[in-house]
Amino acid sequence: MGDTREPFDDLFEPVAGEPGQAPPQQVPMVPCPSCGTMNAANSRHCVSCGARIAQGPLPMAPQPLVRSTAGSRALIVTAAVIAVVAVIAFFYNAFVDDEPSATTVDGGATSTSTTSGDGGVLPDTVELTANRVVPSAQLSGFPADNLIDGDPLTMWQVGQEGVNATLTFFFPEPVALERIEFKNITDETKFLQNFRVRGLRISPDDTTRPTIVELANTRDVQPVAIQTTLTKLVRIEVTSSYPAEAVGDQQPFKELAIEDIKFFGTVATETGG
Description:
By secondary structure, the chain is mostly beta strands. It has a domain at 126-267: Galactose-binding domain-like (Jelly Rolls), CATH 2.60.120.260. Helix content is 12%, strand content 33%.
């Protein structure tokens, strides 16, 4: 048989040298790091096992806000309180003229020094000696002068249990008192046989308000705090007493006795008006 192609078939024959259709673009393939299955490189997860293929960084969640705890809140409050106290202390030190700087106790005696507002040190507390004492009454041989003679073995005695008896002390120059020390009889037997001072009213001449105090029933030195500025005399009144006692076969006395009265402070400086 001859050529069976139709004449029209030649019309549709490809022309030599004419390009055909372009081959499809190849997509790079990468193996799954978990199961080895080949996946397109732009895939995020394996089509077989679902493992992650893309190695780019994952999106970061925003940093959570730090929440304050009870401890941190307490620390903040404490810091605020300390700051307020520091400010108050600063203004107090800036505007207060004088303040105690140190107090020491040595053998029962207290010594206090003060610092002035300009940084200068004021005189220390010293014992102040009265140059005269006038009693409302006294027994022969036991005058009130024994209270300021510096001899611890002498004493002042007054009858009628001592209640309402007074002692007026005079100073040669004005003084600023800080305390008065009272000392009963040291000897235990005489201490018990005599009445002892209990209640006192102390009236310096530079103040209208007396100091009311009650002493203990003891042979120890008893300091009484008192604050004056320009004192020239001090009046001390006995308002009550501890009763005398019998010691063995020795009868009690009806007299009140006291061994020493000492004054402590500084010599005052008078300023003109």
